[in-house]
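Holo model, adenosine-5'-diphosphate. Inputs:
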Amino acid sequence: MTTTVHNLIDGQWVGDPQAERRNPARPEELVSVAPSSGTDAVDAALVAAGQAQRAWAATPAPTRGAILLDAADLLRSRQADVARDLVREEGKTLAEGMGEVRRAIDVLRYFGSQGWRHGGDVLPSAVPGTTVFTRAEPIGVAALITPWNFPIAIPAWKMAPALISGNAVVLKPAELTPVSASHLATALTDAGLPGGVLNVVHGKGSVVGDALARDPRVGALSFTGSTAVGLGLHELLHARRARVQLEMGGKNAYLVLDDADPVAAARVVAAGAFGLTGQACTATSRVYCTPGIHEAFVAAVAKEAEGFVPGDGLDPATTMGPVVSVAQLATDVAAVERARQQGATVVAGGAEPEGQLFAPTVLTGVAHDADVVRKEVFGPVVAVIEVADYDEGLARVNDSDYGLTAGICTGSLAAAHHFAEHAAVGVVKVNRPTSGLDLNVPFGGVKDSSSNTFREQGPTATEFYTWSKTVYLGFE
Ligand code: ADP
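Output:
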């Protein structure tokens, strides 16, 4: 079945669908046709958002929250259908797709319930007969630009804090995954979100995304995607002193110490490296092992890699979905080829892809400055490198342009604590995969992984979408 996707502007589903998306597991299957919008659609969305925002901000926060909670219930009742559509357009396994839709539901519930707490603080004043309080004021119109790899969860975790804070939103979903974003928007409109509060404009990043980034009506822009695009957006938003939040690439490392169990460590690393077909900004892509465990770990992680069953995500036997696109597949293949040229040995995977199925790949014998250690691949490829000791391992982990997540496998509390303190990343995992995040804690990175300003998710997510006004109330 082919889904016809429209833009959502001022509460109306509009726009001529032109851009085709095929199932990455079955290229003969046309999954969707979506608008390839021009700047006129961006303008219409911003007009609608600007008009709707005041009334939305004046709506009591618990009432705003109730709409998010109702949308969560609707999405829950549609979870299996939405997950199947997500799998067909993005390529995850059905279990991963169900988990992602569940995440979007939980995010809506989390921020929906924040409606009862949203506002500010009451603080003592040094002036007698005076109360001081703060008000969390909405920014106004927030633009959200999102990637294909979490096509419903990322729009949800940006949109929910923006909406609960009283902002209107214009979402520009990734071109490859328009259907998932549409399901989220439909749940919200079905739950009673007023027209214009949420607008969705499909199209190219260089057209729709660029127009949003340049438009002074956008007071805040939250972006998840590549570092190259993100840094360009940062320039534009910074120049006009608008809020900007960027979550970009990663080159996430794991350090495996001698005292770890090699099989348990291999499971943790494989889950982070190969889960979601390695297509997560938090995926593990470099592993450093101390000498006593290196050999056993390489054997164990190669076995884990060979245990995956690549296939169509809707097939229950599949444990790894296809690569999202032909272009991404070419990147994965080229990265392994380049690593080979630079001296790597392929100990698992590395075979010719079948269609868009790419076997999880483990490389050894890689130099510290090899491209596969330095550059993000965004596929199921991991390099394992021996280091002399913990100190060298930590130094290698931190020797990267990126700083999103990093992990350590050890039973030593001292090593775990030292690593947690000194790893130059936004998220540290001890004996847990680098990917996989809770929704109630801050998420973000440092260095080229993030704008490193406002964290996403958790209780502070709304800070990005609000500004603080201080009120002195004299009553005597
Ligand atoms: P990926 O390689 O993961 O697709 P991109 O950074 O290219 O990462 O895309 C992430 C999001 O940014 C997508 O929605 C894409 O359409 C959008 N995008 C791409 N180029 C631009 C741009 N020049 N300006 C604004 N948004 C863009």
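The chain has a mean pLDDT of 98. Residues 3-248+450-474 form a domain with the Aldehyde Dehydrogenase; Chain A, domain 1 fold (CATH 3.40.605.10).
Archived with the compound record.
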